[in-house]
Write a structure and sequence with these properties.
About 35% of the residues lie in helices and about 20% in strands. The protein is α/β, with parallel strands linked by helices and about 190 residues long.
């Protein structure tokens, strides 16, 4: 499958899961999008799908509190996981969201996890925890360095090199479209295998 095999006009928010029992398990491949709050998951999903507002973008961190399944041409799902690390949530809410994310990986087999890292501010302790988890699972993942247009090339190169110790890194800018084609190639290869 290639991106040209997908009708990107045929998109829908297919399901919203607030508890693990609501996770979609219909056999279609899933591409999971993971990252801390305000890393740009919604912007990345919208950019890949050529939409402005399919996935809700907010200037306030922590708006995604459910697992959102976007059906792409009836052939696969983009799965937007709740952001982690948002300090203004209550301990109970943080625990619930952590359980939701953990539950997703305990019960689902994503064809690919797209792990977003804000390259401008750098990886957090929570980001490193997630990268260690992904490395330990031996399941396919790619690191997407968001906001790569927000820092100078020399500093960007250093930060990308450091992240590359954890796996393949794609530089991404929603504003400029940097990395979109490369990421689509990885996504379509993962759902085709």
């Amino acid at each position: 499958m290639t991106r040209s095999d997908l009708n990107l006009n045929n998109l829908s928010l297919a399901a919203v899961a607030g508890i693990p029992q609501q996770f979609v398990q219909d056999g279609r491949p899933q591409v999971a999008f993971s990252g801390r709050s305000n890393v740009g998951k919604s912007s990345l999903i919208n950019s890949l799908l050529g939409r402005r507002a399919l996935a809700r973008v907010s200037s306030t961190p922590g708006k995604t509190i459910t697992v959102n399944y976007y059906r792409v041409d009836g052939k696969l799902y983009f799965v937007d996981l709740p952001g982690y690390g948002f300090a203004k949530r209550s301990p109970e809410e943080r625990k619930r969201l952590s359980k939701l994310g953990d539950g997703y990986y305990a019960t689902q087999e994503p064809a690919l996890t797209v792990q977003l890292i804000d390259i401008k501010s750098g990886p957090t302790a929570d980001d490193y925890t997630m990268l260690d988890f992904l490395m330990s699972t031996n399941k396919p993942y790619v690191i997407v360095a968001t906001k790569c247009d927000k820092i100078g090339k020399t500093e960007l190169g250093k930060r990308i090199s450091a992240l590359a110790e954890y796996g393949q890194v794609v530089e991404f800018s929603a504003l400029k479209g940097t990395g979109r084609d490369e990421l689509w190639e990885l996504i379509t290869a993962s759902v085709s295998s």
